[in-house]
Write a structure and sequence with these properties.
By secondary structure, the chain is of the alpha+beta class. The longest helix has 11 residues.
Length: 94
């Protein structure tokens, strides 16, 4: 899937979801009736590197990153311990 297809799918299938664009990213938030400034984070799609985030090397053709918001206990159940957050511009390694 392409980034716009992911975003379109979410907006069409997740009732109460809205598109928010900022800092070069497009995000889907749960915000029925727009009662909150942004809403509750669901996911973001990032298509280019930022000053503090070059580790994904998103400058390659056709490459993008999807960040999905899950609860900490869900992450641990699926993937194990939460890794330490790398410093700005660094790459996380195991």
């Amino acid at each position: 899937m392409k980034p716009d297809e992911i975003l379109k799918y979410c907006l069409e299938n997740l009732e109460g979801s809205v598109l928010v664009e900022s800092w070069g990213e497009k995000g889907i938030f749960y915000n029925p009736g727009h009662v909150l400034k942004r809403g509750v984070y669901i996911l973001t799609v990032k298509e280019k590197d930022g000053d503090n985030d070059k580790g994904s090397k998103l400058d390659r053709p056709g490459v993008y990153r999807v960040n999905l918001g899950v609860r900490k206990d869900t992450f641990v159940r699926l993937f194990g311990a939460v890794p330490k957050r790398p410093g700005a511009g660094d790459i996380c390694s195991k």
